[in-house]
């Protein structure tokens, strides 16, 4: 699916109050934003409110909009019971601001997220907006995120911010990934560790 996006906020695919969803072999491309669209949010896939047992396999997610907000995949926390996402064997690329992949929300839940064997490319060198902050995010201070596995991914980053931001998460594994950086300081950030309410438990990193 190729989209010429115009307007303030766009999601090419939104998954909301849905179960047992599978996307296989789809090309989901956002491109061609007019120069006068300076305030815009564009994401390829947006999971919202409640989702369960979603598989995204062998897809191409490309966001070359240079938008000030939005990413390739936004995984929003939802009502208790939200979870069960596998993203594998995908080519994921973006030039827009914001995270390429984010698990976030406002005081809700997300459990059992697997992101494995993907090619992830970020190019924030256009200079139109500040570099993405961070590149990949798991959780916020208000959320309940658990059992996240980031495994066997090939990550190529040209940006100027943190690569991983893990906050208020329980059970996060980062294993067997390849990272290539350009114009970026490697920093894995656990945001808010000075505040006891911002809990990060069971985070494991493996080569």
Walk me through what this model shows:
The protein is mostly beta strands and 207 residues long. It has no helices and 19 strands. It has strands at residues 2-4, 9-24, 27-31, 41-57, 60-63, 73-78, 83-88, 91-94, 101-104, 109-116, 119-123, 136-138, 144-151, 154-158, 164-166, 169-175, 178-182, 188-189, 200-206. The strands form two sheets. Strands 2, 4, 6, 7, 9, 10, 12, 13, 15, 16, 18 and 19 form a twelve-stranded parallel beta sheet that branches.
**Radius of gyration of CA atoms, rounded to a whole number:** 16 Å
Q: Bin the helical content.
A: under 10%
Mean pLDDT rating: 78
Number of helical stretches of at least 4 residues: 0
Query: Approximately how much beta-strand content do the residues carry?
Result: over 45%
**Largest sheet report:** 12 strands, parallel
Q: How far do the termini sit from each other?
A: 36 Å
What structural class do helix, strand and pairing data support? mainly beta
Secondary-structure element order, N to C: EEEEEEEEEEEEEEEEEEE
Low-confidence stretches: 1-8, 184-200
Name the quaternary structure.
Answer: single chain
Shape type: globular
How many DSSP E strands?
A: 19
């Amino acid at each position: 699916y190729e989209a010429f996006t115009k307007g303030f906020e766009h999601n090419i695919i939104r998954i909301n109050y849905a179960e047992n969803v599978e996307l296989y072999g789809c090309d989901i491309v956002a491109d061609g934003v007019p120069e006068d669209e300076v305030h815009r949010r564009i994401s390829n896939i947006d999971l919202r409110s409640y989702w369960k047992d979603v598989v995204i396999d062998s897809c191409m997610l490309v966001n070359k909009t240079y938008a000030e907000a939005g990413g390739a995949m936004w995984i929003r926390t939802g009502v208790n019971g939200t979870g069960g996402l596998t993203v594998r064997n995908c080519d994921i690329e973006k030039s827009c601001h914001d995270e390429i992949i984010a698990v976030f929300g406002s005081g809700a839940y997300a459990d059992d997220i697997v992101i494995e064997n993907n090619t992830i490319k970020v190019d924030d060198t256009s200079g139109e907006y500040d570099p993405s902050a961070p590149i990949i995010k798991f959780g916020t201070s208000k959320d309940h995120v658990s059992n996240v596995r980031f495994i066997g991914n090939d990550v190529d980053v040209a940006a100027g911010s943190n690569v991983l931001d893990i906050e208020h998460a329980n059970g996060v594994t980062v294993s067997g990934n390849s990272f290539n950086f350009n114009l970026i300081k490697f920093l894995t950030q656990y945001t808010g560790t000075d505040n006891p309410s911002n809990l990060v438990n069971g985070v494991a990193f493996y080569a």
